[in-house]
Amino acid sequence: MIKTTLKIDGMMCGMCESHVNDELRRRIPVAKKVKSSHRTGECTFITEEKVDENIIKEALSAIGYEVTAISYEPYKKRGIFG
After folding, report:
1. Ranges in the chain, pLDDT < 50
2. Residue 38: how many CA atoms within 13 Å on its side-chain side?
3. C-alpha angle 5/10/13, rounded to 5°?
4. Does pTM surpass 0.85?
């Protein structure tokens, strides 16, 4: 599994976070645990495979946000004692 972290310019409030989360879930249906923070200007989500960066950038630019950076890292599911 892959954890994708996006740096997003333009998020100002909780409603912006909701818009970003909803758009990513709509455009990338395989995305799990989509979380955004306007305070840090970041969004993270989990997928089985890397997602095409162009899909991400197009999705968020269509609703008025700019993706300034995308990073990937392996995601390991934590157990109950983990």
Report:
1. none
2. 12
3. 90
4. yes
